[in-house]
Structures are given as structure tokens and as C-alpha cells.
Amino acid sequence: MTDPATIEIASGQLSATLNPLGAELTHLRDAEDRELMTDADPAFWTGHAPLLFPIVGRLAGDRYRLDGKEYALPQHGFARRQPFALIEHGKTRAVFRLTDNDATRAVYPFAFTLDAAYSLTEATLAIDVTATNCDDRPMPASFGFHPAFAWPLPFGRPRESHRILFAQPEPGGLAPIIPGGLIGAEPLPSPVHGRELHLHDDLFARDALVWNTPASDRLRYDGGSGPGLELGFAGMPKLGIWTKPGARFVCVEPWHGIADPQGFDGEIWDKPGMLRFEPGEARSFSMQVTLAD
Q1: Quick count: other Cβ atoms within 10 Å of Cβ 130?
Q2: Other residues' Cβ atoms within 10 Å of the Cβ of residue 1
Q3: How far apart are CA 22 and CA 36, in angstroms?
Q4: Most buried one in 47, 97, 187, 192, CB count within 10 A?
């Protein structure tokens, strides 16, 4: 049953359910009403597709420094736990907005807006998120997507046959996540064979796979044959792939930002992946998900 507080959009080939809490995509279904997203089993993870702002990943000690002061921020920031206002809703498109408030300013002392637009065109869902600095001083921020797709997909292929097929070969090493969620110093060897990453639980025994500089800005997720999901994320320079062993989802996460490196103790401006928004400046971050044969 659909939550009456959620928002629905649909094309002839896809339908999407959106929750104003976090402006989060909670369901993506095909024309036969087959679910393409996570089942959100609380035994593993109850998220669906949180929006990561104003940081991606974890801060050292869950704190950052700005102009000589310290502020606390949880992993991936606060946007995913904030109610967004619905500012546009049509049959195939919905737009949500988060504006700074007392709770956000207590941990992130900037005036901003964060607009999340979801649009369906035939078999493609486009997600476009725009952050705007509404303050009179420069604003540091990062942004990331975190969608969790069904593993296995609902097309009859077994879980063990599923894969990620990158647009380009990915021989580069991975950024290791160490206990505590920070980035370690020694890269890990790539688990990708040419362009293909065969998915299995052992890949995620140590946490997410993180590419600091992936060669690809497109990939396909499928069951080895048959229908799959094609993702495009041009302009997002980092990528995470994550699940919890045994869970029925896999997250494919384009990011513009990353967790603190081990030992980092600088100001937030020096954090890897951090963007500088000048007063009045807006930047957009986009990804597309296409159901393809």
C-alpha cells in the first residue's frame, strides 16, 4: 500500500514513488509493476535512495572545523532526514525544496536551498539536484546520490548472475574504507575484470567499493542477460558501490565528495571533494536511470 504522504509520478514505462522526507525515491516500478528498488528490509538497511548533502561519507570524529569552530555532522549530512517542501507536481515530474532552518543552521551555518527534481520520460528517470548558496559568504558543500536497486532484479535471473558493466575498463585501485568509515592510505586492487564487476557478497565484507577517479560516467546493472538498468552520472567524479552481505539490494552511488582521509584534521575547505559555492552560486548534480532491454 502506498503511503498517502508520498508523491507519485508515472510515464507509460515507469512509475516512481517519492517521499518528501529527504525528497527520497522509495519505489521505481516497471509497466508490469515490478519493483526495481530495495525492499528496505530493516535487518539490513531501511534506506532507499537518500540524497547526501552537505557532505558525502563520514567526517573524522563526525565533526568538521570552519573558521576556528567545530560543528557536528553525521555521515552523509542532514538532507536525508529533513522534510522537503513540494514545489511542483505533475503527472511525470515532481520538484522538492529544502531551505535552511534552525536545525540545519545549528550544524551548518549557511543559508541555502537544495532543489531535487524527478522527471520520467518513457523508460528513463532523471534526477537533477541543485544546491544554491543563499548566503553572503562562500559556502563549502558536497553532494552524492545513494540509490539502492533490487538485487536480484525482478526479471528471473538469479542473484549470483548479477553484474555491473562499466562503460570503460576500470583497472584503477579502490580507495579503502577503514574501520570508522574513513578513507585509508593504501589503495586496494580493482575487482573489475575489464569492464565487468561480478557481484557477490564477499566484495562488501569490508564495506563499500569506492572509486576515487572512475574512468566511466555510465554503467549497466543487470542479471548477466535480459533487462537491466543503465545509469548515467556525467559530472560526478567519484563512485561507490555498496551493500550488506546477504541483503537484497545493491547501491550504485555517484558522488561529488568523499569521506575524510585517515588522519585528516584540516578545515572543511581542505576536505577532499569539497566544493566552494560563492554567494549566489548554484550547481547542479544529475543522474539518469533507464530501464533497458
Answers
A1: 17
A2: 3
A3: 20
A4: 192
Helices (H) and strands (E) in the chain, counts: 1, 22
Separation CA 216–CA 171 (nearest Å): 11
Cα–Cα distance, 89 to 67 (Å, whole number): 40
Round to whole Å and give the CA distance between 60 and 53.
Answer: 17
Residue 282 one-letter amino acid: A
pLDDT band at 1 (very low <50, low <70, confident <90, very high): very low
Task: Assess contact for 112 and 99: CB atoms under 8 A.
Answer: yes
DSSP state of 234: T
Which residues contact residue 13 at a Cβ distance below 8 angstroms, ignoring those fewer than 6 apart? 30, 31, 122, 123, 291
Write the pLDDT tens digit of every residue in 238-265: 999 999 999 999 999 999 999 999 999 9
Cβ pair 138, 276 in contact under 8 A: yes
Neighbours of 253 (CB within 10 A): 25
Q: Alpha-carbon torsion 253, 255, 260, 163, what sign?
A: positive
Burial of 270 (0-12, 13-18, 19+ CB in 10 A): exposed
Cell 509520478, residue located:
9
2: number of Cβ within 10 Å: 10
Contact 84, 98 (CB under 8 A): yes
Amino acid occupying residue 83:
P
Q: Which three cell numbers stand for residue 173?
A: 585501485
- Measured from the Cβ of residue 44, the count of other Cβ atoms closer than 10 Å reads 17
**Cα(100)–Cα(112) distance, rounded to whole angstroms?**
6
* Nine cell digits for residue 35: 519493483
C-beta separation of 127 from 23 below 8 A = no
Listing DSSP states for 156-172 in one string gives: S--GGG-EEEESS---S
SS3 (DSSP) at 293: coil
